[in-house]
Amino acid sequence: MAISLAHTTLLSRTSLFLSRNSRSLAFCIPFSTSSSSAAASSLPSDKLHRNKWRSPVASVLELGGVKIGREDVMRDDPTNNVPDTIFSKLGMQLHRRDQHPIGILKNAIFEYFDTSYPNKFDKFDDLCPIVTVKQNFDDVLVPADHVSRSYNDTYYIDAQSVLRCHTSAHQAELLRRGHTHFLVTGDVYRRDSIDSTHYPVFHQMEGVRVFSPDDWEASGVDATSYAAEDLKKCLEGLANHLFGAVEMRWIDTYFPFTNPSFELEIYFQEKWLEVLGCGVTEQEILKRSGKTNNVAWAFGLGLERLAMVLFDIPDIRLFWSNDERFTSQFSKGQLGVKFKPFSKYPPCYKDISFWINESFTENNLCEVVRGIAGDLAEEVLLIDNFTNKKGMTSHCYRIAYRSMERSLTDDEINELQWNVREQVQSKLNVVLR
Asked: β-strand 431-432 against 348-355: which pairing, if any?
């Protein structure tokens, strides 16, 4: 179960591949970064600073030894809604970079579990982000009519396969394979709004622990209470490990895959901060995985949300920056080093107004804007809407353009906005005002 509070949630012909090492389940071979790093280091410093986006380092992924090209992910299929901007992020795996804030945080969490539960938890951080609809939704009891299944929220490769929305997509398979204690970390994908805390690619970590009757029968409490108590003790220890001695509180909540379900909040920097979601795993999930006499707990957290707090990173787009003024500030094993802003370029605002239709969604608008402006789009905000006497509804959105690394020229911004207007009209079938 990976509940993302950062945003608060195998190709169908490709099977899972177990390596001979029982503690390593490898589905993806990451892109090589050596050639791109060498090329970047040879650039003059001013050009390096302007190297805003990292281009895709390869046109294919290798999944279980099978090469999967761009056409396999961005198919000519009526249900496919994966754009180039998303394909370019596949295989980048920020969570596997030891000197990146996401990798540093992941390793700090691994350190806690290695210390508190020696040789207990299997760790997986290279599982393929392409999964079946069944793995992503059905196996974790997401209702058939749940909004997360819609094309507005999820990136579909075809009707039967998606880019995973959460690391929970691997939970059922790992349970069936016999794993009883495991941590899964990975990049996850959701169509989303554009602002400083939301990005269509982010990173989650999920933890699962399974208990047998021998564990709880001698405790004098029922299985569910035993698992819930152990879960809270584990996660309170994790919060102390990451944030120091902080005040905490538990909030009862609802998730389809756990019962009871909780959110952990800590009092940090003079405000309450949501850290993660968790709960006792629904028995149906365990039953389907062949564990009818067991009970389990699961938790999920968004790494970007916690990293932004721990490292004082103000904008989620920075995690994807290759600017050495950002990357050079972080070192392996140094959790909580405070980010020092290296620039604060002014934003440029452009408005766009149009009459919407019944199929219009804000996520679709944001996909169009991202497809043209990429990470230069800082925010898309609805600033006005009204319905006229004929029943037609107008929306006015303000787009903030800003680079984290350089000043944008008027010509650049005007060209971006012109392209946005053209694409919004043609792709979303709206009438510009």
From this structure: antiparallel
| More confident of the two residues 407 and 34 | 407
**Residue whose structure tokens are 């039953």:** 287
Chain mean position to CA 299? 15
Segment 343-358 shows an average pLDDT of: 92
Region 29-34: mean pLDDT is 32
Number of other CB atoms surrounding residue 254 within 10 Å: 10
Cα–Cα distance list, 334 to 124, 215, 268, 339 (Å): 22, 36, 19, 12
* β-bridge mates for residue 273, sequence order: 266
Strand partners, 281: 258
Do residues 248 and 259 touch, judged by C-beta distance below 8 A? no
186 has which bridge partners? 204
pLDDT exceeds cutoff 80 at 122: yes
pLDDT (0 to 100) of residue 65: 46
CA angle 84, 88, 90 (to 5 degrees): 120
Do 365 and 428 touch, CB atoms closer than 8 A?
yes
337 contact partners, CB below 8 Å, separation of at least 6: 311, 329, 330, 331
How many residues are listed for the chain in this entry? 433
Highest mean pLDDT among 36-45, 387-396, 399-408: 387-396
